[in-house]
Request: fold
Amino acid sequence: MRVALGVEYNGSHFHGWQTQKSGVRTIQLAVEQALSSVADQQIQVYAAGRTDTGVHANAQVIHFDTDALRPPHGWVMGTNIKLPADVSVLWAKEVPQEFHARFSARGRTYRYFILNRMSRPAILSRRVTWVHRPLDAALMHQAGQVLQGRHDFTSYRTVHCQAKSPVRNLHSLKVTRHGDLVVMEVHADGFLHHMVRNIAGVLIAIGSGERDPDWAAEVLAHRDRRLGGMTAAADGLYFHQVDYEAQYEIPAITRDAGLLML
Reply:
């Protein structure tokens, strides 16, 4: 049968999601080893999105195939016993064979958290991006609206991005302030490598007054990564939600599913 899982993780001490030949610590490797132990057979998992080194997830969705029979709570509890403390399975459910964590996704949402104060974080170290210069969140939100819609995001992806097309449909972009936290939330049909972090880098420069608000549109129009802004740190980036057709009944994330949920 095919089983889907919801997974959250603190990516601070991982070299990203995907297993690597070098054998470094990755979330995929940790999850596959834990599931293989519970299933008593080799398990390979497929994820809705491959997060980079240092990036976190509130609601990563994965699936795997197995002939091992376990109840949903068995997959959750058994796997969590085998996982390190910075990875946790939230839920498990059987899904139809045509379901695919990546290819069945209709949209994805990322959140980027910026701690905007003079002093660096301690409790939230490596879980938010720290910017000590005052940021105008309203101006960042305004500047980001030009990125909504279907565009060529070449200027907002890494030069190493392997996606066949740089065109993506960005459904919404919001920047809000909650005390010392500035939160950027982006929802799109898909994302390019470093796209969210590069958008954050441009908007941080605008919000701090380093660049004019029109710069976000200028960068987009250039279609040249060399003329874009800095890539913001991975610390503040969270893979927040995945959209699927209602027929799959994939659980929605709850508001209390992480310290930084707003």
User: Anything to note?
Assistant: DSSP finds five helices and ten strands in the chain. The chain has two domains: 2-104, 107-239.
